[in-house]
Amino acid sequence: MFIILFSCKEKETPILKHPDLLGFKVTTLADSDEDLFDVIEKKEQQGIIETKYINDILYVSTFRILNACGNYEGNIETSNDTISLQLKLTSEEVCTSESARRVTYLIYNPTSKKRIIIK
Fold it and tell me: I need a labelling partner for 93 at 20 to 30 A (CA). Which of 1, 17, 52, 113 fits?
């Protein structure tokens, strides 16, 4: 006698990363009840994006207000001289609180060409 079990849970397909995305990191800087949160929230609203060109690597860092319990994965999309920063919530667990976070991307830029960065 054989017993066959089926799962109803949908299989997650892996996120295909852009080949030029070398690294990605999210760092929590402040929770919503901290004074620093308001400072970072203003920077996020202003759309501040820090970029550094280091040889053939483009370092991009920006501030985001995100779900405090969420886990995120980053990716990029490129079009001509523009790089669009992508951020996807990957955890099923979320909560009602927010946190201010620094989101950092390391991007391969072999021509050291100046790029337009959008989020």
Answer: 17
Measured CA to CA, the distance from residue 109 to residue 57 in angstroms comes to 5
- Alpha carbon separation from 91 to 4, 55, 68, 99, 118 (Å, rounded): 29, 34, 11, 15, 24
In this structure, what is the dihedral angle of CA atoms 86, 87, 88, 91, given to the nearest 10 degrees? Answer: 160
Which residues have CB under 8 Å from 8's CB, separation 6+? Answer: none
pLDDT at 5 > cutoff 90: no
The pLDDT confidence band at residue 16, using thresholds 50, 70 and 90, is confident
What whole-number distance in Å separates Cα of residue 61 and Cα of residue 58? Answer: 10
Q: Is the pLDDT of residue 90 over 70?
A: yes
